[in-house]
Write a structure and sequence with these properties.
Layout: E1 16-17, H1 18-28, H2 32-63, H3 75-87, H4 89-123, H5 125-145, E2 148-149, E3 152-153, E4 155-156, H6 158-183, E5 205-211, H7 217-220, H8 225-241, E6 245-252, H9 260-269, H10 276-283, H11 290-297, E7 301-305, H12 315-319, E8 323-325, H13 344-356, E9 364-370, H14 396-401, H15 405-408, H16 412-437, E10 442-448, H17 454-457, E11 464-471, H18 474-478, E12 486-487, E13 497-499, H19 503-510
Parallel strand pairs: 1-4, 5-9, 5-10, 6-13, 7-8, 7-9
Antiparallel strand pairs: 2-3, 6-11, 6-12, 10-11
Length: 520
Amino acid sequence: MPNTLGNLRAREFTRLPAEAIVGAAVLLSLPRRPRVIVAAISGATLGALTALNILDMGYNEFLGRHFNIILDWELLDDAQSYLKDSLGGTTTVLLTIGVILLVIALITLVALATVRTANVLARYKTPASKGALMAGTVWITCTAFGLQVAGVPIAADHTAGVIKVHAHRAMDTLRDEAAFAKDAKSDTFGNTPPDQLLPDLRGKDVLFTFIESYGRSALQDPQIAPGVTSTLDTSTKALAEAGFHAKSGWLTSATYGGSSWLGHSTTLSGLWIDNQQRYRTVMASDHLSLTKAFQKTGDWDTVGVMPGVQKGWPEQQYYGLDKVYNAFQLGYKGPKFSWSTMPDQYALEAFQRQVHGRKRDKPLMAEIILTSSHQPWAPIPKMVDWEALGDGSLFKPIQKSGTKPADIISDSTRSQQEYGKSISYSVTSLTQWLERYGTDDTVLVFLGDHQPISRVSGTNASRDVPISIVAKDPKVLDKITDWNWTDGLQPAAKAPVWKMSSFRDRFLTAYGSTPHAKKD
């Protein structure tokens, strides 16, 4: 059985598996009791590997990578929460029960079938032995001559290959854990004195805003881009009229299709965090995050606006945030929009009311996560009068009349259309907030955390995301002239592309920070 949906075709099942031939030979040589035990264990293992192939299909489809047997079990809980928000609690419970029963059935029934096959082989030992020998000869011949059917080799050792790949991946994961923990202890700016961090942004309100699933496909895919690029052009002009100007480029994200926290942490830590173990390692370290650099100076109040956070969030300490406003602390009384707990426009208005609009003794640094463009992209909020936002109750009829997740979740074309609309909504919410509430001292940095899933971005899509810096003070953008970014909110196709992990050091350097390395 293949481990990608693209290869789930009849021709994949016409191959002659080496494992079956070897297995038959082994079973034929064993007495009854060992034969039954070996057959049961082999069958159960084959059933488990089939379940693992199904997991691989899901991870390839949604996250653009294979399932990691060391790290990815805990993400299944997030997947269940996503389904609950998208399809409802009852449907999710039924699906969860169905999946559990499917796995149990696979393991049990394949084990029973293998035991039965072993007994049949033993009952007809002489013809079975001849058959195994003939099959082995055919397999060797097909391998030697490279014989294929419809481009697929007849001789196969797929199951052994899957085991080998997962074993190597597990070993690489364990080795990477040790090596990365060592790398995380080294930091170019780890020992920089507070007064030498970000001196060129003193007095500025600096906002780092992540837009969920805002990727290169939103700007360049012909099925998605027209609406998004039109929104970016309109927003660029509107901001210019309000006195704001922007420069934009590309970052290559450490994640794809999901696991947004890996993109956030890679951007702000300056380390390449592409799996959950690396994330845990960094969160437990004292490696300087970009946001914590502002806190370290003592010259900024630091806050986080996290409408997607609905439980304890110990990462607050690593990011150096004095206060975090989660989904329950922004005063929202309206409906959820699938996974997103509240529309971006409301979250930004709540940020204005509770934080940005209040008098302070210090300038502000904020990390803001916008969630309205999170899959499944249905229903999508609509822009309303900012003065009428209230507690968000006015979104009830908008949510009720919107597209249902079940109507688009398996439809690639509709998913692309709704994804584009969601990005336009998030960008519009953010830029209108800046027009409305931004000041001469506001500096906005906004970017995507990753590309959308392959059903939307397409197979073999890049992992690039747009990033923009917006400010009224021309000195802020003058500091990054040598970055060669594109003027405006839309980066040119050939604008510079950097690894997301390089942004922290480039930003700190551009705004006057002096490197004082901390070494392992």
